[in-house]
UniProtKB/TrEMBL annotation:
Keywords: Hydrolase, Signal. InterPro entries: NEUT/ALK_ceramidase_N. The keyword Signal applies. The keyword Signal applies. It comes from Thalassoglobus polymorphus. This is Neutral ceramidase.
Length: 457
């Protein structure tokens, strides 16, 4: 019996399809790279630190990358960073280099920071804290660290791609309850309020968990929690409770890389706090919550990976005039003066103040199961609650919607309309330390929510 050339070609084509990457299922890769500063340098997180350098180390700081690839070959890379935040310029530079090297679009890359307050100054993040304070030597240390950080992030991403192979992904959700709404509960009163069951204000105690396995071996554990990383304020490098949780999970699951991202914890604190013992306790509690999920029944990720990203014009309130900036530059509050001087210098260099800020919103869909929203800035918990209510599966108690803050660009606090109108630190006072010239306009929440709706179509 003979075969035509056409028949032979069809057989060969069918064989190629049977072994193609698209038919082989999902793939993944994971890696980590140490980003602990290699020399003494200023710390970020608290203005009171001034230009004083870190004195020692409690834990290392890490950049960790996980590559997620669906059956069609569509990829996404999440990079988690044990840092207070990252500014727009540095974020754009890093994402551009990753995209160019690995053929990824901006929507396929997410940078998620833990917001630890015991990490280094990063780029121009929280610049009014340092603008009038740093001498050339300290500024050079900050610039050098940004270069080191970029190289280490790229190294982690490269290694995650090198680790790419067949993988399965599953998800679940646990609970941790040490986060407390700091706007509604006075810190000294929290132990008694908690004991009496009288804590007030909204919180988000969900602990989303994503597990990557290869040949039934756990290789990656991604998890989040909505709480400030402010348990300690010493002059020691530390990933705070999120760093401790990662350390514990990597001990519990040898061979796995644990990646932590911060949720909408802009108005949430770990309370009580201020001791290393509490930091270790919270880290262990969070790790235990993740472990319980990993060891329990989880949901398989099935379907397609979808990635979307856009930058929306987030409106600011009325901008200050040049004359008002001059008055502010003479303020007895050195941070008000620093912010004003920074904007006056920019005006002198021909840079006009903008009425809007290019705010990043990103939405990933992991199969038909998980909607993952990444927001820039220090996002208050109202956003997580609303987005879960509007996009979650009620049968799963909305736990299939994950909302990360502190992602891609940490430019300011992001208040809900409620918090903005109430005022206070998260509603406006914090803008001084981030450097934006004024507070947000009232429509900020609706602008962001509409963007999430658009990207989650």
């Amino acid at each position: 019996m003979s075969f035509s050339f056409r028949s032979l070609s069809l057989i060969c084509f069918a064989f190629i399809l049977s072994v193609s990457p698209a038919a082989a299922g999902w793939k993944g890769g994971v890696a980590k790279s140490n980003i602990t500063p290699q020399q003494p340098m200023p710390m970020s997180g608290y203005a009171s630190r001034g230009s004083k350098h870190a004195e020692s180390k409690l834990t290392d700081l890490w950049a960790k990358a996980i590559l997620i690839e669906d059956e069609s070959g569509h990829q996404a890379v999440l990079i988690t960073l044990d840092l207070v935040g990252i500014d727009r310029a540095l974020s754009q530079k890093i994402c551009k280099e990753i995209g160019k090297k690995h053929n990824l679009k901006r929507k396929q890359i997410s940078l998620a920071t833990s917001h630890t307050h015991t990490g280094p100054v990063v780029g121009s993040t929280l610049s009014p804290m340092h603008y009038l304070l740093f001498d050339k030597e300290n500024q050079q240390l900050v610039d050098d660290y940004a270069k080191f950080l970029t190289a280490q992030i790229l190294k982690a991403v490269d290694q995650a791609f090198a680790d790419r192979s067949e993988a399965s992904f599953s998800w679940g959700s646990g609970e941790a309850t040490f986060a407390v709404n700091r706007r509604n509960n006075k810190e000294p009163e929290v132990p008694n309020l908690r004991k009496a069951g009288e804590l007030k204000g909204p919180s988000d105690h969900d602990v989303p968990v994503l597990v990557m396995k290869k040949k039934d071996e756990i290789r990656g554990i991604v998890f989040g929690y909505a709480c400030h990383s402010t348990t300690i304020s010493s002059f020691e490098w530390s990933g705070d409770y999120g760093g401790i949780a990662q350390i514990n999970l990597e001990k519990e699951f040898p061979g796995a890389v644990a990646l932590f991202w911060a949720g909408c914890g802009g108005d949430q604190n770990p309370l009580p706090r201020r001791t290393v013992e509490l930091m270790n306790s919270y880290g262990r509690r969070l790790a235990d919550a993740v472990t319980k999920v990993v060891n329990g029944p989880m949901h398989d990720i099935k379907g397609a990976l979808k990635t979307n990203y856009e930058e929306v014009d987030l409106a600011l309130a009325t901008l200050p005039t040049k004359e008002e900036l001059v008055d502010q530059s003479k303020s007895a509050n050195k941070y008000v003066a620093s912010r004003a001087k920074m904007h006056l210098d920019r005006l002198a260099n021909g840079q006009e103040m903008s009425q809007n800020y290019p705010y990043p919103v990103q939405v990933w869909s992991l199969g038909k199961n998980v909607t993952w929203v990444f927001q820039g800035g220090e996002v208050v918990v109202d956003y997580a609650i609303r987005i879960k209510d509007e996009h979650g599966d009620q049968n799963l108690d909305n736990t299939n919607v994950w909302v990360a803050g502190y992602s891609n660009d940490v430019m300011a606090y992001i208040p809900s309309r409620r918090v903005l109108l109430e005022g206070g630190y998260e509603g406006g006072g914090s803008m001084i330390y981030y450097g934006l010239p004024t507070i947000w306009a009232p429509e900020v929440e609706e602008t962001i929510i509409k963007s999430v709706e658009k990207l989650n179509q």
